[in-house]
Amino acid sequence: MDTKVKVDCKFFKGDMPCKPYKDGEVHCDVCPYYNPIDKKILIIKLGAIGDVIRTTPLLKRLGQEFPHAEISWLTYYPEVIPSQVAKVYTFILKDILTLLATPFDMVYNLDKDLEACSLISMLKAGVKKGFYLENGRCSPIDQGAYHKWLTGLFDDVSKENIKSYLEEIFEICGFDYRGEEYLIENKHPHLFKNIKTKPFLIGLNTGCGNRWKARLWSEEYWIELAKKLITDGCDVILLGGPEEHEKNERIAKASGSFYLGHFPIEKFISLIGQCDLLVTGVTMALHIAIGLKKKFVLMNNIFNRNEFELFNLGLIVEPKLDCIGCYKISCERDCMRLISPDEVQTACKGLMDGSAASREKEKEYICRLPSL
């Protein structure tokens, strides 16, 4: 039987029937759905999960620049990769072997982890961007990655940085950033649809991750803030992971807020999707909220505020100190205590009020402009 197979089609699988065939038993030579691939692109962004989410704006630009490309992504967190990515790989042996045997036109490695740098050094690709392994150390492949590499080496250089994370990764890939937004999918939009009883539901994300303990806000302050927001007529729900479970139970009992427990990532996305506003530190929840276009108050102390794209959705509240952006894992000054519940409550009220929010957003934009 002489059957022509179009192996360059986006639907072609190689080891099983494609969807057009299964839907209509149509062979390649007469298939009306034939969609040829002209480039194969791989993004390497392993983690952390928040950084994976805030790398998704790159997909829109790649789709515009290379509309007939097949885009793949290697990550530790496949559950947050948008569905327009053709192939999602995880860092396991069978996937790594597949990648090593697959020629790519372009590979973008946006991680400085040694395993990611090692892999891109071994992959077959016409163009490589980002970071690779040189003499056993992470190094920038070209000038486009040099700025991001340098800010990771020297805290003082990072503190002076005026580029956002998105500006940096677009620069690494050879593009200018044009305001492309996060892509995130709420796969269970109605899962928690009945939890809201008041006009406004505010989520308080009380965790900060295991690495940067300096960004932890006190349990006492979370309780006080929850009480204030409830007095303002809002529903308040506590959010977090397994590490915050007991703490959130205590806060809920002491403040009168409610807590449903911790959930896998897809359900956690759905829960944030029910909130009208999120109060959080620099965490995965922040980037989920941005992706879902939720209003947010970001409490920041150790990171450079220029790193964040707010998309006219949120406000940043920081301690009034000149050492903000120190990148310290722990802080002897306990500077997060200088962010008071009253300040956070005021920021929440500002975002709940449209006119006040507009004025604050304008201030936020002005303060992020580089000095002339």
3D architecture notes:
This protein has 2 domains: 134 residues, Rossmann fold, CATH 3.40.50.2000; 167 residues, Rossmann fold. It has 14 helices and 12 strands. A 6-stranded mixed sheet has the order 3-2-1-4-5-6. The chain is globular, with a radius of gyration of 23 Å. The N and C termini lie far apart (71 Å). The C terminus is likely disordered.
Fold blueprint:
Blueprint: H1 19-24, E1 39-44, H2 49-53, H3 57-65, E2 69-74, E3 87-89, H4 93-100, E4 104-109, H5 114-122, E5 125-134, E6 137-140, H6 146-153, H7 155-159, H8 165-172, E7 201-205, H9 219-231, E8 235-239, H10 245-255, E9 258-259, H11 265-274, E10 277-280, H12 284-291, E11 295-299, E12 314-317, H13 341-352, H14 354-367
Helix pairs in contact: 9-10, 9-13, 13-14
Give the overall average pLDDT: 90
Number of strands: 12
Which outline best applies? globular
Terminal CA distance: 71 Å
How much helix, percentage-wise, in residues? 25-40%
The third-level CATH topology of the largest domain is: Rossmann fold
> In DSSP terms, counting alpha (H) and pi (I) runs of 4 or more, how many helices?
14
Assembly context of the chains: single chain
Can you give me a brief rundown of this structure?
With 372 residues, the protein is α/β, with parallel strands linked by helices. Helices cover 34% and strands 16% of the residues. The chain has helices at 19-24, 49-53, 57-65, 93-100, 114-122, 146-153, 155-159, 165-172, 219-231, 245-255, 265-274, 284-291, 341-352, 354-367, and strands spanning 39-44, 69-74, 87-89, 104-109, 125-134, 137-140, 201-205, 235-239, 258-259, 277-280, 295-299, 314-317.
